[in-house]
Amino acid sequence: MGTSPKEPAALRTEQGLVRMGLALANWSERWFPDPLVFALLGIVIVFATGVVLHESPAKLAIQGGKNFWTLVPFTMQMVMIIVGGYVVASTPLVYRAIRGLAAIPRSPRAAVAWIALFSMLTSLISWGLSLIFSGLLARELAHRVKGMDYRAAGAAAYLGLGAVWAMGLSSSAAMLMATKSAIPPSLFSISGLIPLTQTLFLWPSIATTAILIALSVLVAYLSTPSPENARTIESYSIQYEPVRSALEVRSKPGEWLEHSPLLTIVIGGLLCWYLVNVFRTSPQGALAALDLNTYNLIFITVGLLLHWRPRRFMNAVADCIPATGGVIIQFPFYAVIFGMIIGTGIADALAKLFALMSTHETYPLLVATYSAVLGVFIPSGGSKWVIEAPYVLQAANLHQVHLGWVVQIYNAAEALPNLVNPFWMLPLLGILKLKARDIVGYGVLQLMVHIPVVFFLCWLFARYIPYMPPLK
After folding, report:
1. Which of 69-78, 239-248, 256-265, 356-365 has the lowest mean pLDDT?
2. How far apart are CA 82 and CA 327, in angstroms?
């Protein structure tokens, strides 16, 4: 969309963060590429980096192509997170809660801050739920609160993925390190078992999460433009579409089971039985069973039961499928980047540089920087941690830095590039019917505020958490 005639006046009349937010939003609308272009550029940059490091161009191309399908299972898991989040958020019960929450804010600023708060709170449970829940909340508020900037609302809905998701229960790195059977033997020999009490539930981790939530809500509130200068949902010619709740009239005898709760009760009961057994029999405790597959199955089961009838459940699945298209086509290209890094000497070269440059004092900052930069090219917290963990935790042992806090440094810094990386925006954009360039400007503003705060907290708390030898 082109520049609106009223935007130059907006930049003159608004003050502070509002002025900066509008300027960045206008810039991103003109210059920010489509998410697929972002992924393709990442391949070019990593390829060029490999050539500079004297890697064979042929080897880089072969390793990249060989890994094109490597992340297909993980891609499906990501799709199921989106589907699971949507089918739960769109159930009559949860959707009524969303509509109830949407009735509370009365001003555009309060509405955007409200979206930001619930985006981050729900992301601590599941980042997939966060994207869908906050997207539906933003859509409801755009309909109810006149003069609310739709770009700022969309960016606020994305804050859970860019601020605190990895500090919550869907943290791939923390869950991996707390599950002995999931840790590769070569990594276990370095780190041992790191329980969640030494990662997610460390008091510095909880304090960092609370600070980031408060800061993000404040920035979202202060950067929301006035109604006179807002780009509203009407500006994009987007029609308000409430989530479908009513069932079609049954017209054929064969549709009886589609409209009956009988199969839902039976299948839901069997899945609940299985899930209870998973948590009850987990050797490392119930929390250790919270892996990606278990999370997905929980949300699918809850969505199935809350929708009550198979037809309503399938309607919800059909409604959210368009939001998964970008994930399906782009993840193989990120797998090419992944392959070029781990299949050549790039990873080893980075590891040696990492160990050479770090000291006890600089180590937390270096981990944070490295994790954030690598996150631009590999937007997968779990896959990226497997790449980083061996040499990151080995260096932590050498410099006697608390291993659990190293995992949390990774988690806090790994989320930073999500604020501007369009990949994880795709499900949200599908719900809001926006483009990445529409909301990334406000993400850049949040990133400018978050970087110094996250780096400072990572460094500060590392000084006060005593080192503990690996728990074998």
Report:
1. 239-248
2. 10
